Amino acid sequence: MQRPTLTILLPVYNEAHRIQRGLDSALYLSEKLKHHCDVEILVLDDGSTDGSTDNLPTGVRLIKRPHLGKGAAVRVGLNNCTSEWTLFTDIDWSVPVETVYQLIINGLDSSSDIIIASREISGATRIAEPPWRHLLGKLFNRWVQWMLLAGYMDTQCGCKMLHRNAIETVVPLMKEDGWAFDVELLLIANLKGVSVSEFAVPWVYQSQSKIRVWRDGLRMAQAVWRMRQRLNLNNFEEK
Fold it and tell me: What pTM value is reported for the model?
């Protein structure tokens, strides 16, 4: 039987202060997975200006592009993967690497084409997150469920694993460049009948997150409205 192939996709933007730790975790994970699948590590540099990707370890593939946002970066990365599976996660490993390992092992044996980390389902935990940030996240999720997509308590956790079939079906229809791309990915998957499963994770709040809650929260809410206008939810077609 042919061995599964997996790309670990790491989008980065001005992460010089922590990219080495993040890559060390990715390399550790790759080594831990070697008995289960063949692994490639791909760094997608979204226009960093601080030299984040000037000195990557041998064997780590790099794509550099102008800065447009995390959604655009992940989309480019997914379009440049030829592996059977692709997992994207944040360079700060807010979902700890040992948990990501378990998610991958689960995904390789899963019948689902997309596996998403969830901080809200039974068994999940949030560590050190300020209460006000958790509240705002819940408000955004209620907005998403009301406007677009019911059924997922957490669309925004930055760790997701996609089969090649899902990438080929969903990614060509994605257009959101910013943080709301996760919602768009799951919405299109739902409309196209792509199977999705959730995986409970511990998630560690990182105070150095690139998200600016009020500014980016407003932009994400606007993106949800924009998606509703662009997509016919009753009879799906791209507009």
Answer: 0.90
